[in-house]
Design goal:
Largest sheet: 5 strands, antiparallel
Shape: globular
CATH topology: HIT family, subunit A
Strand order of the largest sheet: 1-2-3-5-4
Order of helices and strands: HEEEHEHE
CATH superfamily: HIT-like
Number of strands: 5
Structural class: alpha+beta
Radius of gyration: 14 Å
Number of domains: 1
Number of helices: 3
CATH architecture: 2-Layer Sandwich
Oligomer: single chain
């Protein structure tokens, strides 16, 4: 079994969170340290440690993550102006929790994806 994570505990209702969507495949909740006016995390209910460990059996949940992101962007009023979806993978990708998750960000111009370095 995968390592116990804070996200898995949120999915199971053991840790309080501002859950904005939940079904049998995914759970979405507001980030406690938002980086934009809208910052929602969307996670598969079945933990997958990283994007590098995705298997074909995860496809239903991963597809649902995208349709939920679209639905939430519409509900939050950011769909028309645009939004960003981010999935970080492992240390160099900036992943902080070993449970695959998608960030839905929007509500203001987000600028370039990466800082430019000389």
């Amino acid at each position: 079994m995968s390592e116990e994570t804070i996200f898995l505990r949120i999915v199971r209702g053991e840790i309080p969170a501002d859950i904005v969507y939940q079904d049998d495949l995914v759970t979405a909740f507001r980030d406690i340290q938002p980086q934009a006016p809208v910052h929602i995390l969307i996670v598969p209910n079945e933990p997958v440690p990283t994007a590098a460990e995705v298997e074909p059996s995860h496809e239903p949940a991963l597809g649902r993550m995208f349709t939920v992101a679209r639905r939430l962007a519409e509900q939050e009023g950011i769909a028309e102006d645009g939004f960003r979806l981010i999935v970080n993978c492992r240390e160099h990708g900036g992943q902080e929790v070993a449970h695959l998750h998608m960030h839905l960000l929007g509500g203001r111009p987000l600028g370039p994806m990466l800082s430019r370095r000389a």
